[in-house]
Automatic annotation (TrEMBL):
Gene3D superfamilies: Galactose oxidase/kelch, beta-propeller, Immunoglobulins. Residues 65-439 form the Glyoxal oxidase N-terminal domain. The lineage of its organism: Eukaryota, Fungi, Dikarya, Basidiomycota, Agaricomycotina. Residues 1-17 form the signal peptide. This is Copper radical oxidase. SUPFAM superfamilies: E set domains (SSF81296), Galactose oxidase, central domain (SSF50965). Keywords: Signal. PANTHER family: GLYOXAL OXIDASE, SECRETED PROTEIN-RELATED. It comes from Trametes coccinea (strain BRFM310). Residues 444-545 form the Galactose oxidase-like Early set domain.
Length: 555
């Protein structure tokens, strides 16, 4: 009798608890992206720049299809950008002065959109924009005077310790499926030399080495992984140190896209660890021997980049499913969102023996997972409580953390031009969603004000408010300094989370924190600061980390 009574009580309390306990939600926006948002970068607290190929998108600028668009995070509306060069499969980042630079792209002119020129040597700028709605702000280009040293389609880039961009690899013109026309070099923007630096690593990692996954380490060196090879590149000494291969014949760069992320860096030592997930275990890259049904790998490989960690090599763990083209994105609390991609097939368009429409990939994964870096091996990945997006996001999709603390998700187009339903399994996808974490539906801590500019290695005190639900002694307080990255081809260039030491005052009204020691730990440039208390994250505060000066230029 007592047992029965108890279980009825448990049921009753459950049915009361369920509706009020907030979970993760996908939220479909009314307005569409107008272009296929295959690249995305947050450029201000309210604005995201999207890029697509110069094709036949519905969103028009000057009476032709726009190559770029500005998404307003406050109103969920879009307006076209006037992109002059084809930004298809480009990379980019924010520079130390807050300017966004998009680099490289597609050499081809789209027959029905000849207004947009070749983009493989392009540099496109979006200057810091103070208007919350982006009024008067547009892409600035001058292909004749401002361009890369080498042609690069499918390059990667990362902001480095002096606030400039290191630009890595890519191909020159056109190749079928994999890299047969490689740009085997590095260069900088602004340039540091008159000629690109040759790279043995890029040679060794052929032919599946497009969009290398690269990270600026806290000592200023650069970690790179392409195909199944990895190195640490010393920009100053111009040397490379070869690290162990990704285990088990798993390859992780385009057209065999896995993804990679630099795990959160924590004081006092900021020991870097890299996580690489997805891709495919394969010996061949001959598209005729590959199919849209070839299983992607569930393998994640993780390495700690100090001497002891390098000696130990890669530690292997597994996602809940295989994923080609997964996205790995930081949450401000240090977890990593694993989203999007497919369970089988490859990146690129209509090249395997049996594409689905034009898609080399199939079996879109609709339910994201969370990776908890601090959990024990084997217990780090879960999709408990995560909903289905209902929308396939395969090749040419993007996702980014926003300053509001949720994720903006758009794009997908494994087609050479705009292809829409009915009966098309993988159409050109214009629908935009956010993925909203549970903390979006409860009272959140607030950062009430923040200096616009923060110097390195300094302590700051700012006013905050903490809801009573979170005001408890011993609460877990995290202060994260983040670069939200440039999302392109299942990789978030320059994405970074540096935890800062700090504490909340006794009265709960102010937060004191210490910025990273120098520009190697956080390359100088824009950053978003979030305050998280017991996994409830504030909206981010947009700051300039460092002087805000332009990166050095070649004399
Ligand atoms: C766009 O086309 C319309 C109709 O052909 C024309 O009236 C208008 O001036 C054009 N606008 C631009 C910016 O070229
Ligand atoms: C990496 O790829 C190369 C070239 O295909 C192969 O010889 C090597 O065995 C692979 N390494 C591992 C650890 O699988
Ligand atoms: C798509 O374009 C590529 C080159 O840009 C070409 O090789 C391929 O045949 C095209 N595929 C389709 C389905 O049109
Ligand atoms: C940071 O500041 C502390 C004193 O507050 C000083 O001891 C330390 O050397 C500084 N570190 C750097 C990298 O400048
Ligand atoms: C930032 O630096 C870049 C590279 O030198 C330059 O092109 C751009 O105009 C600068 N932006 C501002 C706002 O000074």
């Amino acid at each position: 009798m007592i047992r029965a009574a108890l279980s009825i009580f448990a049921l009753v309390s459950l049915s009361f608890a369920a509706p009020s306990a907030p979970g993760w939600r996908f939220d479909l926006k009314k307005e569409t992206s107008g272009i296929v948002a295959l690249e995305a970068i947050v450029v201000s607290p309210t604005l995201v720049v999207f890029f697509d190929r110069a094709s036949d998108d519905p969103l028009q600028v000057n009476n032709h299809s726009a190559g770029g668009a500005l998404w307003n995070l406050e109103t969920s509306t879009v307006r076209p950008l006037n992109v002059l060069t084809n930004s298809f499969c480009a990379s980019g980042a924010l520079l130390s002065n807050g300017t966004m630079a998009s680099v490289g792209g597609d050499p081809n002119i789209f027959p029905t959109n000849p207004e947009i020129g070749a983009g493989n040597q392009a540099i496109r700028l979006f200057q810091p924009c103070d208007s919350p709605t982006g009024d008067g702000c547009d892409i600035i280009e001058n292909p004749a005077t401002l361009h890369l040293l080498e042609k690069r389609w499918y390059p990667s880039s990362v902001r480095i310790f002096d606030g400039s961009l290191l630009i890595v690899g890519g191909m020159h013109e056109d190749t079928p499926f994999y890299n047969t026309d490689p740009a085997l070099s590095f260069e900088f923007f602004p340039p540091k030399e008159d000629t690109p630096r040759p790279s043995e690593f890029l040679k060794r990692s052929l032919p599946a080495n497009l969009f290398p996954r690269i990270f600026a380490l806290p000592d200023g060196k650069i970690f790179m992984v392409a195909n199944n090879q990895s190195i640490i590149y010393d920009i100053e000494a111009q040397t490379e140190r070869i690290l162990p291969d990704i285990p088990n014949n798993v390859r992780v760069t385009n057209p065999i896209d896995g993804s990679a992320i630099l795990l959160p860096l924590s004081p006092p030592d900021f020991v870097p660890e890299v996580l690489v997930c997805g891709g495919t275990q394969t010996d061949t890259i001959d598209p005729l021997l590959l199919t849209s049904q070839t299983p992607a790998t569930s393998q994640c490989s993780r390495i700690r980049l100090d001497e002891e960690g390098i000696a130990k090599g890669w530690e292997v763990e597994h996602m809940l499913e295989g994923r080609i083209m997964p996205e790995l994105v930081h949450l401000p609390n240090g977890q990593v969102l694993i989203a999007n991609g497919g369970r089988t097939g490859f990146a690129a368009i209509a090249s395997v023996s049996d594409p689905i429409g034009n898609s080399n990939a199939d079996h879109a994964v609709l339910v994201p997972s969370l990776y908890t870096p601090t959990a024990p091996l084997g217990q780090r990945i879960s999709n408990a409580g995560l909903p289905s997006s209902g929308i396939a996001r395969v090749y040419h999709s993007s996702i980014t953390l926003t300053p509001q603390g949720n994720f903006l998700i758009a794009g997908s187009n494994p087609n050479n031009h705009t292809v829409v339903g009915p009966g098309v399994k993988f159409p050109s996808e214009f629908r935009v969603q956010t993925l909203d974490p549970p903390f979006m539906f409860v009272e959140r801590p607030k950062i009430l004000s923040m200096p616009k500019k923060l110097a390195f290695n300094k302590s700051f005190t700012v006013p905050i408010s903490v809801p009573s639900s979170l005001a408890r002694p011993g609460a877990n307080v995290q202060i994260s300094l983040m670069d939200l990255g440039f999302s392109s081809h299942a990789f978030h260039s320059s994405a970074r989370l540096v935890f800062m030491n700090g504490k909340i005052s006794q009265d709960g009204k102010s937060l004191t924190f210490t910025t990273p020691p120098n520009g190697r730990v956080y390359p100088p440039g824009p950053a978003t600061i979030f305050l998280t208390i017991d996994d409830v994250t504030s909206e981010g505060a947009w700051v300039m980390m460092g002087s805000g000066n332009s990166p050095p230029t070649l004399e």
